[in-house]
Amino acid sequence: MKILIVGAGQVGYFLCERLSGEGHEVTLIDRDDIHLRRAQDRLNVMGIVGNGASAEILEQANIKQTDIFIAVTDLDEVNILACLLAREYAVKTRVARVKSIEYRSHGAILSKEKLGIDLLINPSDEVADEMVKIACRKGSFDVAEFVEGKIQFLGYHIDQESPLCGMTLRELGELRGMYRFIVTAISRGDETIIPRGEDAIEAGDSIFIFAHQSDLPAIQYLLGAEGNQKRRTQRVFIIGGSKVGIRIADQLEKQNFDVRLVDRDEQRCLKISARLKKTMVIHADGTDIHALLEEGLEHADIFIAVTNSDETNILTSLLYKQHNSGRTLARINKPELLNLAPNLGIDACISPRLSAAGAILKYVRRGSVISLATIEGSNAEVLEVEVNQGNPHVDIPLGSLNFPKGAIIGAIVRGSTYEIATGSSVLKAGDRVVTFTLPEALARVEKFFA
User: pLDDT value at position 113?
Assistant: First the structure.
């Protein structure tokens, strides 16, 4: 496909990297010549210097032959105007990133339907929603949902006390009668492993599993993720009263969490307090650990840092860890800090870049891909695909198929039933299949299900 991307920032570069690597013909527009040269030097893309909301520049980029148009600059107005121009050139699929324009609420003045844009994506909303999912899954650092939430993809850190530490995948498989899940990947240092029977889980690993929603309580008990948190309502501290913090607080208080939101701006605190129903709003600096301890920080189960400063989010998370063993979730923008933060002991780092890019990638996948989630650090993806009529791989045991190396099928959903995949499982037309896929196998997996 021919894809035109406006904006060579973090999101634009990430999309160029993924899409050009899959063989798409990608053109990138940006006003900054330095950003364009970096992309052209490292990726197989064509760069054009100019304003992406200019008809002249768009024609220079051959927009009349474009299949998908994606505008992800830092300016909402430029992104929307660029998409409106793309609509006039009859581009079939149009995607825009927006940060400050309200478009989701009922009766919004600007909505994707009114603008004729297929996808309006707000990175802040995506970050907030992802953090809420993680907060609601005890012990996990990564969460994605597939097949309308029936299949859960979860990441867990393994320490010396974990019941899984030292177990091989074959030994773990023997527990499947009691605990129905599959370990699809092990992250060890800079390496991501698709495990086989003799591979063992070690202390310091991060594991990724597929499981059905109904089986999660038993699985979390096995992993020791329940702890003693059943005794009381979970307490959450949120540092940062931005739109992200407010959205997280609003969703968590509806889930009956004891929510406490901290911000150092007194006027903002007053506005937040009037907006939220149950959340305790605290006027304090997030780094004033003594003030937070007086407000009950030592009894918090989850600490979420979502200020606009990566450094503040990391620092406050580390200060919390000195007084509590609960989970820490931090919003991190800079890629270099995103890789560093987990090594400092932060449990989950959520990237607006990755959240936005993952949502956008759903719109540019060809074939039968229904949904996907991206995994930071490994560039791996979790794909939900549908098995089409005429697929040559149906009714054959998975163990007998030449499934692409670097990928693994985790779960198969057939109507109202499901199964965690084994070598004896078979695919049927209409099945929805969830797979974990390393970057080098993405194209082959799509071809397998095409």
Answer: 73
